[in-house]
Amino acid sequence: MIDLKHFIHQPNEIKNSSLYYDKFVFSERRIMEKDNTTVNEINNILKGNTGDKNIKKNKNELKNINTLFILNNTKDIRDLAKGEKEKVLEKHIKQRYKNILKDLVIKDLCKKIELTKNIRHNMISSLKNRYDIISYKIYTKTPFLVGAGIPSIDEIGFYWSRNLGLPIIPGTTIKGAFRKYLESEKSTFIKEIFGEEDKKGKVSFLDAVPINDIELGIEYQTPHFQKYYNGNQPPNDVYNPVPLNFLSVFKGKFRVDIIIERNNNNIVEEIQSNFKNFIEYYGLGAKTSMGYGRFKINGQL
Hints:
This protein has helices at 4-9, 17-33, 38-46, 52-57, 59-63, 74-81, 85-108, 110-127, 171-184, 190-194, 226-229, 265-282; strands at 131-140, 195-196, 199-200, 203-205, 209-210, 215-221, 244-251, 253-261, 295-300. The protein is an alpha+beta fold. Strands 1, 4, 5, 8 and 9 form a five-stranded antiparallel sheet that branches. A two-stranded antiparallel sheet has the order 2-3. Helix 2 packs antiparallel against helix 7. The relative contact order is 0.15.
């Protein structure tokens, strides 16, 4: 049985960012939702007095409460004492886990990136005798977000490689976006590259993996018509805007590998003549219409 409190109070012990994001944060929330004793314990200590002076006076005793909530914020303690647990929970989980992940990326990913680079290099070297391979180095020109629709602890998801514990760009994302781009360019090689319902294509797109340091950041968007988007109210200017924050990759350099069956020189030429424009101007991931997901090719490998 994993003690989640260990991870909450000692986030440096977390070794896999992906598992923390996908599993532990959800578990933390479920456990905190079921925590029905914290409110009573807080009120027993404060004895109904939620004033700042009384909270500060009892701060040490409040910190000793056996709860997943970190009780070091006067407003949060007051809200919990009033029974507004959901309000505190939203604030507590949504902001805290993003900050933990940002710190993990800074402290913990260098060795993983180096290991990933070596694994990919060895893999591609072993395939070169049997396939034509196009490999690019790309780096971010603007932040990018992949996995916005993935179920997440909050409204906007984020994609991590579960095995590597690294932010990556899935090969399926590259493949789907590149297909849309070639269709818009009226390419005659769509079926040969991507296949048909009963026939596989001649090209495979591997996940784009990081090959140097990554910087994660927190972005914000502010929907003004949340009740309309939820489907139960008309759009109306009287609604208050609802700020949302989400993770995105601010900076990083990635390796993209495209594997092509031998003796398909026309396909190789088609990819090489289109991929640069696609990756630099068409973009990858969510919010590309707002300028997200633009990359610069920094040469072939």
